[in-house]
Amino acid sequence: MTPTAETARIVLLGAGHAHLLAIPRIRRALPKATIQFVDPSEVATYSGMLPGVLAGHYALREATIDLAAYAARHGVTVIRARAVGVGAQEVRLAGNAGGDRIGFDLLSLDIGSHSGMPEIDGFDRHAVPVKPLDGFMRRMGALPTVGPRPLRVAVIGGGVAGVEIALALVHRQGAEVCMFESGPGIARAVCPATASRLTRALERAGVRVIANARVIRITPDGVCQDDGSQIAADVVIGAAGARAHGWLAADLPVDAQGFVVVDPDLQVQGRRGVFAAGDCAAMVHAPRPKAGVFAVRQAPVLAHNLIASVRGAPLQSFQPQKDYLKLVSLGARLAVAEWRGITVQGRWVWWLKDRIDTRFMAGLHR
Ligand SMILES: Cc1cc2nc3c(=O)[nH]c(=O)nc-3n(C[C@H](O)[C@H](O)[C@H](O)COP(=O)(O)OP(=O)(O)OC[C@H]3O[C@@H](n4cnc5c(N)ncnc54)[C@H](O)[C@@H]3O)c2cc1C
Questions:
Q1: Residue nearest (by alpha carbon) to ligand 1 atom 15
Q2: How far is the CA of 200 from the centre of ligand 1 (A)?
């Protein structure tokens, strides 16, 4: 039976940015539809403010959204579970006390990515992946902030996220940080002028960067490389980019990295009524790096297309912007901005980032 505005069952997997922003629009347009949203976490953590939390500029609650409260505010049901499979008209769940399957007429996935590195021996047991973010913050929160000697931290991955985390930990607790980057230099996703600024910031903070690193093992004592060298660390953080959740490939079309392939209307290729957005989606029509900014921009199109699918109206296409403002915090209340190859740095840049981030969170708390 074709769903109507009264009978439609819409299931949203993951409290990613696109879903959080789309929910109020969908609810307003379809006040009688059943909207269920599924996430294993109690909170959605905003990655843009996470380095600021680590640096001590924000309390963790300022960077998180309580999902039960959010769902109640917008009249949707939250199911605290992890999706593990997608069938023709139902989702399989793990960890849901209410049952292991839920049916849908329309489905959307916005489940982000993860930072696990199972190919490195001992990673699963001894390292802390930065994503999922709530797990990362729980484990970082359990670390001592004062001790007889500085905390020794190894960061695997010299991308922007790794740089921000390293500088935040130096700023907050005077950590001794060693960063392992598999490429010849750090921060490949930004322009050379921005990368130079970040390199200088790491040097000033005393962060040791090992380029062309080949990490092969993590032990309770630190990091081992393929040349036999070992670097002692109290905590090893995995921040080497966004990886696709492994279960997706079993049920949905995926690209070479395992991300779900979507058409310009954000519908999964060959699966009418199933959508995907955010990091978990591969926009093969316009590939872009994995960044929250695209999930945010997809939200209105995703909301429109879910509503239009119920009403039998035409769907919209999502055309991502070519470039976006990159704001990178440097531990202290100082940040670098990059826009179309132009890079600037200063306290005012941190202030601008603070304004953008805190406004974004304030919008979600309304
Ligand atoms: C330290 C750091 C800083 C960053 N800073 C920036 C920045 O300044 N600007 C920027 O644009 N990008 C930034 N990023 C990248 C950004 O975090 C991601 O691109 C963005 O979060 C992706 O959003 P999303 O909507 O895909 O999902 P996410 O925000 O990652 O949320 C995914 C949600 O899905 C849930 N989930 C996962 N698996 C399942 C499942 N199986 N079933 C149900 N739910 C599930 C998770 O619990 C989570 O709530 C940063 C990343 C890091 C690590």
A1: 291
A2: 28
- CA dist 34 and 59 (Å) reads 34
Give every residue of the chain whose pLDDT is below 50, as ranges. none
Nearest 5°: phi and psi at 200? -65, -40
Predicted confidence at residue 1, as pLDDT, reads 64
Q: Considering the domain 123-241+325-365, what is its CATH architecture?
A: 3-Layer(bba) Sandwich (3.50)
13 in ligand 1 pocket by Cβ < 6 Å? Answer: yes
Any atom of ligand 1 within 6 Å of the Cβ of 328: no
Segments making up each domain of the chain, as ranges: 9-40+80-113+243-311, 123-241+325-365
Does ligand 1 come within 6 angstroms of the Cβ of 238?
no
Count the neighbouring beta carbons within 10 Å of the beta carbon of residue 190: 21
Site to probe by mutation for ligand 1, drawn from 12, 47, 298 as the one with most ligand atoms within 8 Å of Cβ, is 47
Predicted model pTM:
0.96
For domain 9-40+80-113+243-311, the CATH superfamily is FAD/NAD(P)-binding domain (3.50.50.60)
Which residue puts its alpha carbon closest to atom 23 of ligand 1? Answer: 292
Please, what's the b/e burial string for 64-79 (b: 16 or more CB within 10 A of its CB; e: otherwise)? bbebeebbeebebebb
Looking at residue 249, its amino acid is A
Q: Is the dihedral of CA 138, 139, 142, 148 positive or negative?
A: negative
User: Ligand 1, closest atom to CA 17?
Assistant: 25
